[in-house]
Automatic annotation (TrEMBL):
<protein>
    <recommendedName>
        <fullName>ribonuclease T2</fullName>
        <ecNumber>4.6.1.19</ecNumber>
    </recommendedName>
</protein>
<dbReference type="InterPro" id="IPR033697">
    <property type="entry name" value="Ribonuclease_T2_eukaryotic"/>
</dbReference>
<feature type="active site">
    <location>
        <position position="179"/>
    </location>
</feature>
<comment type="similarity">
    <text>Belongs to the RNase T2 family.</text>
</comment>
<dbReference type="InterPro" id="IPR036430">
    <property type="entry name" value="RNase_T2-like_sf"/>
</dbReference>
<feature type="signal peptide">
    <location>
        <begin position="1"/>
        <end position="27"/>
    </location>
</feature>
<dbReference type="GO" id="GO:0033897">
    <property type="term" value="F:ribonuclease T2 activity"/>
</dbReference>
<keyword id="KW-1015">Disulfide bond</keyword>
<dbReference type="GO" id="GO:0003723">
    <property type="term" value="F:RNA binding"/>
</dbReference>
<dbReference type="GO" id="GO:0006401">
    <property type="term" value="P:RNA catabolic process"/>
</dbReference>
<keyword id="KW-0732">Signal</keyword>
<dbReference type="InterPro" id="IPR018188">
    <property type="entry name" value="RNase_T2_His_AS_1"/>
</dbReference>
<dbReference type="Pfam" id="PF00445">
    <property type="entry name" value="Ribonuclease_T2"/>
</dbReference>
<dbReference type="InterPro" id="IPR033130">
    <property type="entry name" value="RNase_T2_His_AS_2"/>
</dbReference>
<dbReference type="GO" id="GO:0005576">
    <property type="term" value="C:extracellular region"/>
</dbReference>
<dbReference type="InterPro" id="IPR001568">
    <property type="entry name" value="RNase_T2-like"/>
</dbReference>
<feature type="active site">
    <location>
        <position position="101"/>
    </location>
</feature>
Length: 324
């Protein structure tokens, strides 16, 4: 797609004051853009499609841009970790919140595909490194996906992701790239062709990040647990049943809880969904986890406090003067 005309091309040169205003506007925009572009897919043809929740359709799905298929079992996944390893570089965990892992397209039977489109391979360290047939998944060496976000002028998105979508032992953008190339390329509603003839390179990447964040907002794990009296503690442990009951009481379906250290340290949660419409804009319906928890069924489970210096306040204080 051709970029929209730069605003200064349209200016009548002798109107000096107008020029000044325009110069200011352009200065605040990313190169080559006069406004932040829309990154959503072209869905007008979806209006005539039948309505159903993914994995519950009784007839085959024809337009796969309208509903994720295969991959109709949609997982919104989150991490609980206590450090990032890059605290010195300012990479910290958000106080009072779990972090985003990704948005994954499982098949309705619980199996899944990965790295489905090598022309959209932006992961610098693919995991797995090879396909089952032994073919290497080539590590990406180009500019990070954070540069794609900047090219779309989405300072807001970048700021949010750097607060809530946090990697461990490597820069955040490596995790974002991994999630897009491993999972979004296998999700039909993010296929390049779904964006229509005006597709602009990488708009699917931006669109996936917005969608993963929207899904993440449905599941405020920290707040739900805290409201049931379950807060991170290095003194008191909990049981799997306590976590599951607290979350299920609000979600309406049991999520998957993942633990490390032989089932004793809580580290992740996966919320399973069927989706009516697209992952981008459709309605998520929570469904029971189809994976068995890796946490101990009867033993103590630790929901550890973050390490000192690994956490930061991510909400913003509004001063009295601004409120009044
Ligand atoms: C190996 O599997 C990948 C992914 O399914 C496929 O793209 C590739 O063509 C296969 N390579 C060979 C040599 O069969
Ligand atoms: C892991 O946990 C199981 C059951 O909770 C226990 O039987 C086993 O001994 C543990 N293994 C290790 C290495 O601690
Ligand atoms: C809590 O315990 C975990 C696990 O040992 C540790 O990593 C973390 O630093 C501890 N947090 C605090 C505040 O002591």
């Amino acid at each position: 797609m051709a970029l929209r005309t730069r605003r200064y091309d349209m200016v009548v040169p002798h109107i000096a004051s107008f020029l000044a205003v325009v110069a200011l506007t352009v200065a605040g925009m990313p190169d080559g853009l006069s406004s932040i572009p829309i990154t959503g897919p072209a869905l007008s043809s979806c209006a005539s499609e039948p309505r159903f929740f993914s994995c519950e359709n009784t007839t085959p799905i024809k337009n796969t841009c309208c509903s994720p298929t295969p991959g109709g079992l949609v997982l919104a996944t989150q991490f609980w970790s206590t450090y990032t390893g890059l605290e010195k570089h300012g990479q910290k965990l958000p106080k009072g919140s779990w972090t985003i892992h990704g948005l994954w397209p499982d098949n309705c039977d619980g199996s899944y595909e990965q790295y489905c489109d090598l022309s959209r391979q932006y992961d610098p360290a693919p995991s797995p490194a090879k396909f089952p047939n032994g073919t290497l998944i080539p590590p990406y060496k180009g500019p990070g996906v954070d540069t794609f976000i900047r090219q779309f002028g989405r300072k807001d998105l970048l700021a949010f992701m750097n607060k809530y979508w946090i990697n461990q032992g490597a820069p955040n953008a490596d995790l974002w790239a991994h999630e897009f190339s491993k999972h979004a390329t296998c999700t039909s509603t993010f296929d390049v062709r779904c964006y229509g003839p005006s597709y602009r390179k990488h708009q699917d990447v931006i669109n996936y990040y917005d969608a993963a964040i929207r899904a993440h907002h449905h599941y405020p794990t920290f707040d739900i647990l805290a409201a049931s009296g379950i807060v991170p503690s290095n003194k008191t442990s909990y049981t799997l049943d306590q976590f599951e009951r607290a979350l299920t009481s609000q979600i309406g379906a049991t999520p998957y809880l993942g633990c490390t250290n032989n089932g004793t340290v809580l580290s992740e949660v996966w919320y399973f969904n069927h989706v009516s419409g697209t992952e981008q804009y459709g309605t998520f319906k929570p469904v029971e986890s189809s994976a068995a928890s890796s946490c101990s069924k009867s033993g103590p489970i630790w929901y550890y406090e973050r390490s000192r210096g690994s956490e930061q306040e991510v909400r913003e204080w509004v001063s009295r003067e601004n409120v009044d």
